Amino acid sequence: MRLRNGLIPLAATLVLAAASGTAYGSPGDRPGTEDAIRSITPITTVYTYGQKVSAVAIEYGGTVNPRTLDTGTFSVRDTVYNFRFNPIEDLPKLADRTVTHTYTNGVADTRSDHRSTPGRYVIVELDPADTGGNTVVVSKCPTFLCTVKVNPELPTRVVQRKDVHAQPGRGAGKGPILARATPRESRPVTEKPVNHLVDEFTYGSYLSGGMVLPYHYRLPKNYQPGRAYPLMVVLPGHGMGWDGDNLGVQLAADIPATAWLQPQWTGSSEDVIVLAPQHQRVGGAAEADLLIKLLDQFVGEFAVDTRRVYATTVSYGSQLLWAAFAKRPDLFAGGLVTGGFPVDAAQATAIATAEVPVWITHGEHDHLLNVSGARNSTTLLRQAYEARGKSPEQAADLVRYTEYADSAFTSPDYHAAFGPTYEDSGILRWLLARAKPATAGS
């Protein structure tokens, strides 16, 4: 996680309550708001570097005439705050979003074709390239590093700039007015967000030896217990660890958890089970032990292809991967380490002995974890393979390494190597193609 100037002041967290927006509730509960608008629902999407408000759904008292709508009917303002770069004091600072599509729908959600269908909701889609609209904020700063959470009260504001009409009775004309334009009235969202993909995950908690491991998982939509699905274990960075107040942030803070559910990211239409545990930042060995116990239970409970269990990491999560791979290499078919910590010699030997392939990626100018650690890890692992008789070419195939120049990052956080990594579907396809050799009777 990138922190402005390396850290965010602890005192900054004290302004969250004042800056985080309005409590959800009916527009009619607040003075100066007409009841012609029944509700405003934010809709979010996880992009490469995190979740943003991607649309709003505005509900009216009757079926809306879509022919009277255009991208100028509404304006939307949202926070300019980005936890990677801004102080928390910037959270209440709002900027205009770019409206890309406006259409009607029967439910408070977007349509992939952006076409109107009869309904009382107007969907206003927003440009993901806008600076504003990020949902993840600082949670706590227990050390010089902070944790993050999804803002429970989004500051998104909507203005209706033109009249909104109902469908005309005979299909001709504009139809009666459902709500007159109120260009001077900025309305807050009133409903809890619709979170694309994130809402499809199920919460679970594993307890062992006094340690609790919160996790979220998502099964394929047409999950069949009689099948065997690959399992992707997503191990997040330090800031997405469990702090007592930020359940589920590991799904929203960046792309690695939800990417595996989307063919446009993976380059594959194969169904994958995704397991995304949080961690408590108490050390790789203890947390790796807990992770392994969770995995043994999870694999026994769900229809997991035991030849295709993978782990992918962001930053701090690499410590858990190295320790878990060394302790139980029989569990894993491959790993992807982005912007991570270095492997040690004993771990490298254990991983090479079991021939667990890994791909390491790192930013050339990573400001939190120097690139030398990734280079040394690559060398150490390849040397461990060569010590076991592999040729340099075979070792390089089993231990792949990609180093990114600054130009590869679409956001200037050069610690966030998951960005260019996940934007390269070839790397994700490589990981999904790994499989442990079949054993007798399997």
How would you characterize this protein structure?
This protein is an alpha/beta fold and 442 residues long. The protein has two domains: 4-195, Immunoglobulin-like (Sandwich); 198-432, Alpha/Beta hydrolase fold, catalytic domain (Rossmann fold), CATH 3.40.50. The protein contains eleven helices and 21 strands. The strands form five sheets. Strands 14-15-17-16-18-19-20-21 form an eight-stranded mixed beta sheet, with helices on both faces. Strands 5-6-2-1-13 form a five-stranded mixed beta sheet, with no helix packed on it. Helix 7 packs across helix 8 (371-387). The longest helix is centred in the middle third of the chain and has 18 residues, at 284-301. Residues 1-21 and 28-34 have low confidence and may be disordered.
Q: Give the strand order, joined by hyphens, for the main sheet.
A: 14-15-17-16-18-19-20-21
Number of domains: 2
Radius of gyration over all CA atoms, rounded:
24 Å
Identify the CATH homologous superfamily of the largest domain: Alpha/Beta hydrolase fold, catalytic domain
Q: So how many helices?
A: 11
Largest sheet: 8 strands, mixed
Task: Give the DSSP E fraction (strand runs of 2 or more residues).
Answer: 25-35%
Question: Mind telling me the CATH class of the largest domain?
Answer: Alpha Beta
- Mean pLDDT, nearest integer? 91
Unreliable sequence segments: 1-21, 28-34
CATH topology term of the largest domain: Rossmann fold
Calculate the terminal CA-CA distance, rounded to whole Å: 41 Å
> Given the C-alpha coordinates, what overall shape results?
elongated
Number of strands: 21
- What is the CATH architecture term of the largest domain? 3-Layer(aba) Sandwich
The proportion of residues forming helix, as a percent range, comes to 10-25%
> How would you classify the helix and strand content by structural class?
alpha/beta
